[in-house]
Each structure stands twice: as structure tokens, then as C-alpha cells.
Amino acid sequence: MKEVGFEEFNTHAVWKFMEPQKGEFDFAVIDQVLEVAASEGMRVFLSVHPLPDPRWFHMKYAGDGMVDRRGRPAYPRNRVALCWDNPHFREHCTEFIQALVNRYKSAPPLAYWNAWTEPNWIGGSPVYPSVDYDQLTCYCPYTAEKWSEWLRAKYGDVDRVNAAWRIGYGAGELGDWSDVTPPTALPGQWGSYRAWLDWRAFIDDRLTDLVQWVSDTIKATDGNHPTHSNLLFQSAVYNPTILGCDVAKMAGAVDILGSSVYVRSTAGERPELLAQTVDVLRSAASRYSRSCWVTEYQAGPIIWSHDRAVVPTPDDLFLAPFQAIAHGAKGFYYWMWRPRMDAENGGWEQAEYGMTGKDGTLRDRAVRAGAAGRFIRDHEKLILSATYTPRVAILRSQALYHLSFGEVIDEIGANRELPVGDARRFYTDSVLGAYRLLWEEKIPVGFVTPDDILLGRLKDYAVLVMPFAYMLSEAVGAKISDFARGGGVVVADFGCAMKNEVGAVYPRSPGAGLADVFGAEEFDVASDERAIRLEPGTADASEPVRTHMLRSVLRADSGAVVIGKYEDGASAVTLHEYGRGAGILVGTLIFRGYQVSSDPATRAFVRHLVGVRGEVSPVTISGLASDLRVKVEASVLTTETGELLIAINHNSCRVVATADVKTSSREAWDLMRDAAMPVESREGGVCITLPLEASGVAVIRL
Ligand SMILES: [Zn+2]
User: Fold this and answer.
1) Separation of 409 CA from ligand 1 center, angstroms?
2) Which of 164, 316, 390, 663 has the maximum number of C-beta atoms within 10 A of its C-beta?
3) β-strands 110-117, 43-49: how paired?
């Protein structure tokens, strides 16, 4: 490891193996690993695994374990899935964590603690094809008790729960707290909206509380080393409801937020998904002034686990950390060094993932990954202190994920990439589509939650993009109006603010006061596909944009300009000057349409809208055919002395691109070749010719 350029590695302390009898600890394996690390001068990232639990505990305390929505044991397996709301769990596991932390807190190689690896409620891999609505957890008595406590803390008395949940019509009201049970009917089955949203917010809270508990237990014994948790990347880019993991909440539970990222084996060649994961994590961590990592990145073969059998190339392993850094990540680990070979737990995942042979001999993957690490460390001061500051925010709402899942419109898309067709995965796909479009246009993006908006965090942005934001509270709507009044641009598509936070429909659509911002409202809805003809001067007006699935016929105020019309002349897109800013309303599901079609006319149109009040990207790539251009990633970070341009060619062929970068510098230094690059001065920046090999990376200091 050391020889090829690695400096740190992750190792795992599992309760089941390390406390084989109550109070008898066996840390021999970890002792040995830390000894080797110390003698080689390497640092160790030590992961605490409270699960699986030891046999002595399991037999006595695990009980029936987690229970699913149908009242069955969750995820049938030989061993019940211990519920972490079982109070015996924390009581006994605390002693293990304390013993572990006490033993190693002063060990010189120790660098970080991992409080929890891939926290989620489905008890294992999210890629089980069988995970569905009925497997939502947890409905066990321990979790139900915590649910009751959560509601008491939120509402105080039962009548307020009845009022908030809008249960009534003479049936279903709660008489007293003993009537409170976890809701089993989804909103899509005529269940209460508010009860569902409360329940899922509670489930997210329980998982956050779990990770926070481990982190706090570590910190109570070791005040020096930071704590970490790596989420599943599905929590960041797909619908996180079934996983029960809220990235924004998790960011507050540990010092460094990370993610496992297995894009190829889950979604195929979708390079933007690693970028999106990092952008979601970085945005969440920034609220606490904390940093983010990619904590697991596929380093070797996947043969039978996940959705696709795929092996990353050495170049893939070289490229990935640069992509993470280009979006503001500050750490990067691969999974794994040697292929997985578990003595105890054979079967699934065995022989997968390694970047070396089974005997630890090097493969090119290990050499190239090490080379990336060595380069980054050689330029550590410059690269890791560089900051990434997007001017465009995408609204990302956990409640919207929950509601669209509960309404059964985010079908199948719980946690993975599946064929979309006519499925109504509106919310997940709309956010994916908005992100991919902006990524392809090299527009840096941050993600804001409704809470971020209430906290005033829109002040950091010039543009707010609201993909299928169909539920919005009056309070968040008022803050968005303030943002536009103060100079911000708001871009929304079909369905914007149709419902309030209890699922009730606003009298005008968009509601929450936003019809005033857009200077337009919905007059009627249709589902026949139409072309939208753009007014001259709006993107490439010769290319019509197609509607996707649903379209609003808009009625514009006299102050709004209709910049796109359906073929029959009805209003499709409006632009409204509002205060010092503007509101733009697109009548159709433009972002989901893009996710499905990748239509270049749609991309050019949205690019135009997002930049309508000024350029929002520090770099433009040109000189390439459109299909090649979109796969050249380019990112500009700010350093103490200027800028850092990171360019990555995700195409499978060599390209020579032209990069126009905003900068006051008139010089460029190619850090990989350690040589000056010719630049042409331009108004407000420089123009650089960038030759990039297939899967090539350029890091250029300006
Ligand atoms: Zn439970």
C-alpha cells in the first residue's frame, strides 16, 4: 500500500467478533493492524460496527427484531434483524464502544473514527430487488414507543395530533396516546398526509439519533479524533424514504460526512452521480461548517452483488478522487485493497472489490489509485484548501421525497436506477434531471433544503431551481419571494407549490405566494404532448422544446412576458421581473423530461433560463460536438492566490477542448505535466486549449 502511494486505510471493529462473551473483549486483530500501521507510518481510519451483535446478546435480548409494514419480521434471514430502538442494544453496546475507544484513542496511527457505515433502515444492502413499499420499517413495539414519545414532544396533546393529521369524518381520531400506532396506510392509500410525513421524519430522526449516539459515545471517551459516517449514495441521489436516511440531519451527527459510491454497478456509466452525491453531502455539511468525503469507491470487480457486473479500469480509479475534489470533497477512500475474503461470512460479495490480487500482489488498479493519492498529497496545501462556491441552488426536500413515495408516484425508484418509461417517478427523476443538465453545462450547484431556506441560506446563491417542487409551506414560499425581490432568479416547472405542508391544495397554483413572483398561474392542465415554441432571443428559438407527460396552460399577468407558447398559442413559459430579481415558470415537467430524453433543445433552453440574469458558471467548454462536450467535466475552485481548474474527460476517446475560464490570472500551470500552458487573454478571463486523453484528468493552476 505504502509503496504505491497510500497513506491511510480503513479497518473494522465489529461488536459480534470483539466481545464474544459479555465483558470479555478480544481486540487482537485490531492490535495487530495498528502495530503494522505504526511500523509502516500509516494512518488508520477505524470503523465501529455495533452490528451484527454478539451471540450472547442476540439470544437473550434481540427478541423478534424489526417488523415491517405488514407485521412480518423484516428481511427474512436466519437471524432476526435487531432493532436499534431495542433499549438493551444501547445499554450493552456502550460498553463495547467505550472499551474499544479507550484502547485505541492514544494509538499513534489512529486518525478518525467511523461511527456507522452505511446507515439505513432496510437492514442490509439497498439493492435487494425485493425491497418494496411493504418492507418499510420499523413497526416493532420499541420503535412504536419512540414514535409515541416523538409525537408527545411535537404536539403535546392528542387533540393537536388529530387536528394536524386531519383525520376525521367521524372515524380514525385518536382518543388518547394509547391509540397512537405507526401509520400503515400510505397517502396513496388514503392515509393521512401529515401522519405519513411525521412518521417518515421520525424514522429519519431515529437513524440520525443512532449515528449521533455512537459518535457521542466515542467523543465522551476520546475528545481528540473526529467522527465520521458514510451514507449510502442512494440516500443522496435517489428517493431516500425506504432507507430512512436524511442527509441534512446526518450532517449534524458527525464531524465529517461521507458516502459509499457505487455508481457503475448500480446505474451504469453515469459520471454525474458521483458529482451529485458530493454536492448533496457538501451542501449538507456546510450548514455545520463541516467537510465531506467519498468513503467507499468501487475499486475492483463486482460480479454478483449490486445490479451490474462491472470492473472499473485503472483510469477510472485514477479519475474518481479528482472528480470528488472538483466538487469540494476533502477525502477519498477506495473499497477495497484486497478482494473480499471473509472467513466467517462466505457467499455474497466474496472475491469482489479488490484492487490487488487475493494474495495482495499489485494490479494496475492499485498502482493508478496510489498515483492519484500521491499527486493529491504532493499538492495537498493547494488542492485541499481550495473552495467551491456554486451560485445556483437546487431545492432538495426530504419531505417531498417522502410525500412522492407515499403518494406512490415515486414508483419503484426507492433507491436505484431503473427503466423509467411511463412510470411516474416525478420527484426523484426531476431532481436527477435538473442536476445532470446543469452538470453537463458546467454550472456549479449546491442543494438547499426547505430548512436551509428558512435559515436564510439562499443569500449564498443567485438562482434557485425548483424541480417538481409540488409541496411547499407558506413560510418557505415567503422566503423564496424575499429572495426574488432581493435580486434572485427563481426557476420552477410543472406542479410548483400545488400543495401546502399538510397536503392541502392552495387556491392558486403556484401557491405559497409564488404566483406573484412568477406573475402567472395555472389555468388548466393537459397531458397531450406538445411542442413549446420559444420567443426569439430565448435560447435557440428555432428548436422547439417538447412537453413531458403533463403541462399547465398558464395565465400570465400583464407584467409577465410569455417566452414560450404551445402550438395553439397558449402560454407555456413565463418570465416575470419581480423586485430586483425574476421568476420563471415552465408549464411542463421540464427536468424529468430531460432526465428521460436528454434532449439538447431542452438543455439549451434551461441553460438560457438559469443564466438569464448573468453568467452562473466560471468555465465554458467549447470546440467539441455536443455529445462529447457534455461529458467533459470542468470545475473551478478558488485558491488563496487564484483559481484551480479541474477538467475530466468522461468520454472513451481523446478530445481537444477549449476552456474559457473566468480569472484575473493571465498564466496557467499544468500541475500534472508540471509545465506552463499557453493561454489567450479574454475579457474577464483566459482561454486554454485542453487536450484530454480518454478518462484523462487535467489540474491547472491559474
Ligand atoms: Zn423497531
Assistant:
1) 26
2) 390
3) parallel
The enclosing H or E element of 560 equals strand 560-566
Among 231, 308, 236, smallest CA distance to 272 is for 236
Distance (Å) from CA 74 to ligand 1 centroid:
10
Q: Can you point out the beta strands (E) in 191-267?
A: 227-232, 256-261
From 44-53, 189-198, 281-290, 422-431, the region with the lowest mean pLDDT:
422-431
| Cα 68 to ligand 1 centroid, rounded to whole Å | 9
Residue 412: the pLDDT is 55
The Å distance, Cα 237 to ligand 1 centre, comes to 26
Residue 619 Cα to ligand 1 middle (Å) = 49
How much distance in Å is there from the Cα of 180 to the middle of ligand 1?
15
Instruction: Give strand pairing partners of 657.
Output: 690
What's the pTM? 0.97
- Distance from residue 154's CA to the centre of ligand 1 (Å): 20
Cis peptide before 52 (omega within 30 of 0): yes
Cα-to-centroid distance, 146 and ligand 1 (Å): 9
147 CA distance to ligand 1 middle (Å) = 10
Mean pLDDT, the chain, whole residue set: 93
Which DSSP symbol is given to 215? Answer: H
Cα torsion 37, 42, 47, 53 to 10°: value is -10
144 CA distance to ligand 1 middle (Å):
7
399 Cα: distance to centroid of ligand 1 (angstroms):
22
CA–CA gap between residue 50 and residue 15 (Å, rounded): 5
| Dist. CA 120 → ligand 1 center (Å) | 13
Q: What is the predicted pLDDT for the residue at 171?
A: 56
* CA 142 to ligand 1 centroid distance, Å: 5
Q: Are 315 and 351 spatial neighbours (Cβ–Cβ below 8 Å)?
A: no
Nearest to 366 by CA among 325, 327, 337, 324: 337
Confidence band for 389, pLDDT divided at 50, 70 and 90:
very high
Q: SS3 for 658-673, per residue?
A: EEEEECCCCCEEECCC
Q: Is 118 left (phi over 0), alpha (psi -120 to 50) or beta?
A: left
Q: Ligand 1 center to residue 84 CA distance, Å? A: 7
Per-residue confidence (pLDDT) for residue 416, from 0 to 100? 53
Closest Cα partner for 298 from 314, 276, 281, 284? 314
